[in-house]
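Recall that a protein's primary structure is simply its ordered list of amino acids. Everything else, from secondary elements to tertiary packing, is in principle encoded there. The following example makes that idea concrete.
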Amino acid sequence: MKLIKRFILNRSAEKRHAYFYGMVATDEQVWLLRDKNEDLLLIENEDGYPLLLPVWPRRSFAEMMAANLEESYEAFNISLSIFLDDLLVDVENDGGAVSIFPNENDTIIQTRDEIKEMILNL
């Protein structure tokens, strides 16, 4: 099973993006990483956003990424409604956006409105 997960994680950003929305629409939850102080993993970005919030469609993908980080992070999930209506409002208020299903090579960055539109079109 881990081989299949690695295969999915190593696919192009566009393919991971499609996979992410398929899983999130089914499960109605997203996975994030937090440290021992319960601070979320945020990525500083150079593409016009001061910060990015990385999200994954499944625990196993978040844990695979956490294993490659210098600090210790744990995977946890939140409901899609809390993600969209609470967390992403805070992220956007801080000038941030979301990194959809990132790997070590690339990601697709989306705003709250873009994420909501994607979910509504599923």
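The radius of gyration is 13 Å. The mean pLDDT is 94.
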